[in-house]
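Appendix B: complex inputs.
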Amino acid sequence: QVQMQESGPGLVKPSETLSLTCTVSGDSISSTSYYWGWIRQPPGKGPEWIVSIYYNRNNYYNPSLKSRVTTSVDTSKNQFSLKLSSVTAADTAIYFCARPPFGEEHSFEYWGQGILVTVSS
Amino acid sequence: EVVVTQSPATLSVSPGERATLSCRARQIPSKYLAWYQQKRGQAPRLLIYGVSTRATGVPARFSGSQSVTEFTLTISSLQSEDSAVYYCQDYSNWPLLFGQGTKLEIK
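Resulting structure:
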C-alpha cells in the first residue's frame, strides 16, 4: 500500500521560500518508473499542477511557476521535496504530493493528505 | 490562456438517477483524460484515467467516455455518498491541467 505524507511549515512570510517534503512508504522513489507530482489547491478552487519529478530524468514544470520552483530527491530517505521562492498571498494553498497509478504516467492515484500553507506576515 | 472547461458548475440530481458531467480539454480525441472526486477536507480521489479506465476500487456506476466534442463522466444510479466536487484533468500535454470542477449535489 503506497502512502504519501507531506511535511513542512504551515506559515510562510511573503517574499520567503516555501519548503515542503513528501515522504513515501510502500514504494521506492528510485526503483519505480513514476513521475512523482506536486499539486496545490487554493482555498475554494480547483487543483493546480506544479511539477512532476523523476529521480534520474528531467522534471516537468508548470511554466507559470517554473522560475520559482526547485526540486530535489533523497533516495536514502525515500523523499522528494519542493521549494517555491518569493511567495505571495497567491501561493496560499493546500499542497499535495501524489503518484500515478500502475502503468500510467501523469494522472494521480496516490495522494498525501495535503498540507495547508498560508503566506502571511 | 489554455483552459479545461467543465460543465455544469453545479448539478443537482436525485438518488438513483443518472448524473452526466462534461469536460472540454485541449484535444480530442485523446487517451489522456482523468476524473477525480473530492469531498470536503480530503485529497482528490482518482476515479477514471485514460478516458475510461476505472481506478482501483472505484464502483462500476462510474464510467468515462468521449464524444466528438467532449469528455463525459457518467454516474449511474446516484448514491448519497456521491455528493462531492468532480474535476477532470487533461494530461495530453504539458502543463497538466485541471478543470474548475462540477459540484454534484444529491437532492
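The first strand of chain B starts at residue 5 and ends at 7.
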